[in-house]
Amino acid sequence: MTLWTAGSRSSGCGYGDAMLLRRAAAPIALFTAVAFAGCTAPEPEPEPTVAPPTDEPIFASEEEALAAAEEVYRAYVKVIDDILKDGGAEPERLDRYAIGQAAELQKAGFAEALSSGVRSQGETTFVIDKLQHWSGNPSEGSESIAIFVCQDVSATDLVNADGKSVSDPGRPPVLPFEIGLTSTASGALVVSRDELWRGPNFC
């Protein structure tokens, strides 16, 4: 993320929160009583039962995948807004919602805000233009969903320690992004890729 401050032009933009959607159900530990008879040695414990792998898809339909992506991305945008309102402090709050390129991008923006002494005001909003692709059974760590998003920062502002706006007045109010979401080992869906779309503007 690049902060759109007055006097600077860049290809990035500022943001708001992220959230993982679902966690794999915690395995249930099964305890088996060991029988003893007189002074005989205890019987060996049975091997724990391992559930067979399931072929059930993470997302049963395109609609379900899109709904999951929207929920996660909304949380991701919100936490970024929250961190920027605090001037970039406690960037680790993002860790629950983003990994990889997306996390690195946003944390660079938080560090920039912290060193510049600026903070954000207002709320970032967005509209999902369309689902680009999705996978019902992605391999662990692979991108599950990609969406095209129109992000609106027109209701946000960057201010300095004196409360004066330092936002670039020429910043675009709405920008197109391509967002990738990945399924983690825990079963969570998180934002892993956050890129400004370089093709024709769909917003």
Task: Jot down its keywords.
alpha+beta; 6 strands; two-stranded antiparallel ribbon; Nuclear Transport Factor 2, Chain: A; four-stranded antiparallel sheet; single chain; 203 residues
Give a description of the structure.
- With 203 residues, this protein is an alpha+beta fold.
- The chain has helices spanning 62-85, 100-116; strands at 119-121, 125-134, 143-152, 157-159, 174-183, 189-196.
- It is built from two helices and six strands; from the N terminus they run ααββββββ.
- It has a four-stranded antiparallel beta sheet with strand order 2-3-5-6. Strands 1-4 form a two-stranded antiparallel ribbon.
Task: Describe the protein's topology.
Blueprint (H helix, E strand, L loop, with lengths): L61 H24 L14 H17 L2 E3 L3 E10 L8 E10 L4 E3 L14 E10 L5 E8 L7
- The poorly predicted ranges are 4-54
Query: Assembly type of the shown chains?
Result: single chain
In what range is the share of β-strand residues?
15-25%
Structural class: alpha+beta
Strand order of the largest sheet: 2-3-5-6
Tell me the helix content: 10-25%
Summary of the model, kept short:
This protein has 203 residues and is α+β, with helices and mostly antiparallel strands.
